[in-house]
Amino acid sequence: MSGYCRIAPGHEWHGPYHAEHYGFPIADDDELFERLILEINQAGLSWLTILKKQQGFRDAYHGFKIAKVARYGERDRTRLLNDAGIIRNKLKVNAAIENAKRIQALQKSHGSFAEWLAAHHPLTKPEWMKLFKKTFVFTGGEIVGEFLMSIGYLPGAHAADCPVYKKIGKLKPAWLAAQKKGMKY
Predict the structure, then answer these.
(1) For site-directed labelling of 168, which of 8, 38, 82, 174 has its Cα 20 to 30 A away?
(2) What is the reported pTM?
(3) How far is CA 134 from CA 2, 31, 32, 170, 171, in A?
């Protein structure tokens, strides 16, 4: 085993995330939005910091309800920037609000954020990075790669000898379906 699969099992915070969330396909738009915002907030910080603040983020961002976050105004920005339960970074707070609005546009054009992702799959990581840079704000290469890996669109979340790898394989993540058709990442 390598990387996260080696260090996460048994860890108070990483263990449950590794075994129950990381790399698992997600179809719910609010959950996809949550994962994107958590990845954006992780930039420059440890994932452990984000996991410890995850409930704080859920509370502060009204359960990551896209429609609600898209309507946030200055009062909400101020509230978020003063909330010690989250990462108080103006660029990241603004990105959450703006990306909620952009996801709403994708929901109108594609039916859902999940459908938009599916409509563009399969893409290589560099192709995804270009698409995200054009579509969202505060989505650099590392953020995009981790987001897509964490939701089953890019391979690499788990080592092949990790028991979770087999569990995820049964759920037919997008990357595995594309790989079976000959996609090279």
Answers:
(1) 38
(2) 0.96
(3) 33, 22, 18, 33, 30
